[in-house]
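Methods — Computational structure assignment.
A single polypeptide chain was analysed. Its primary sequence is given first, followed by the predicted tertiary structure written as structure tokens.
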Amino acid sequence: MTATTNPRFALLSGLVLVVFKLHRLPVCVSDIAMKSSLQFYEGMPLPMRVIAPGRLATLREQAGLSKGELARRIGVSTRMVFFYEEGRHTPTPQRLQKMAEALRCDVEELTGVRRGEEGLVDLRFAAGLTLDQAVKLLRRTTVGRDLYLSAPRLSALEQGRPVLGRNWCDGDVVGRLPAALAKIYGVPVRMVVDAWMRTRPSEPAPLRPRQRPRKGASGSADAAWRSLNERQRVYLGEVLRDERMTETEMWMRRVHHLPVPRPAEWRKLPLALHAPARVVGYTRLQERLRSNGVHDPGAGATVHALERRGLLVTSTDVVHHPAAGEVTRVRVEMTKQGRAAARAGLGEAAERQPDMPLLSEWLWGVMARVAAAGPDGLDGDALSGRAPFYLGVGYKSRSAGRPSRGFIDEVPVLAADGSHIVGYRWKLTPVGLWHAAEYLAEYRQRYPRVDTTAVASLADEHS
């Protein structure tokens, strides 16, 4: 029996023609190859990333490309580019990625999704994966097999609809899925968790921070400390203590809305001035050393020995002293190895990073400040430095930098008559508020000195 006389083939062909007539699109091989545009689940089309109206044409013109040239670069017909710009068709993830490369822009610029507003489907499209491709990769993982992942189930997850199936009611099993998604999408796990919470706002957070036991000092750090003589140990220990005191001072400056230098700057601690002590006195670090029995503190052999071991880095600059004029200042900065060796010598645990998906103490303090500003929000100029790049919607640092969490947003404030914008105010976004409410207990346990009264009040109001 030939294909043309096969009843089953004839029925399928008729269904394809009906679908394309309903959408008023021409039937062609390239269109049929777009499987994601033909798949349906319970009468609902699988989710697509739609190019924002007019955005593609604008970006194409800015790049100096004709429709034909763009079509050639992404492997479609000129007519298909016309359909894309008219909003009559949506490119597959791979073609969307090629389109962004041809136009030298991010996928977000084509779709209109700002940094910090991504949903689960946005992460998949940014990775250039169709549903079938993503499922194929996930089915290779243990959690993918435990959840019996399929294209319809992943589609339901991305659309915020209930996902039916074995183990989908088991929070421990589902909680392993964000890490698997992060791996195939090539993004941090925290980014998947945030996108999940935006996509499925009526559910609990998919991941709880794990209480990891504090690790003791490593063998290399302990060996580095034991290799030092008594004077070198005093120097290294006091540099660590002075760094901690400086870190506390920087934290207090942030609390009081004062400008804060970059860590790369304030971690360089003043050690000595090249001028007589009777004229310029002693630096704070020198005073600390003197109180520990070092009566000639300076940048001599001891500091150089610590630098040769890779425990400290020294640098010099010129500063103005009221009594001595322009003098050379010596500064010291602890290396990672030096900090670990000092902690080992003082019997302290290794430094901990915030547990997934929590913020650092500094960024959590920023969130608390925004919450404390109340419904009017925090003045737009009150946040300086890098905080907006880590927390603000629409912010982007260097291309390979940490993605924004999208927990705060600059909201325009209109004049009384609504004629113009008079300023901007920082406010918590819905996912920022939800994150704060979900993990409030964990934050209070880890960062007790951050005042969370306002955060708790907001969380209660929106619960």
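Note: Residues 1-5, 8-47 have pLDDT under 50 and may be disordered.
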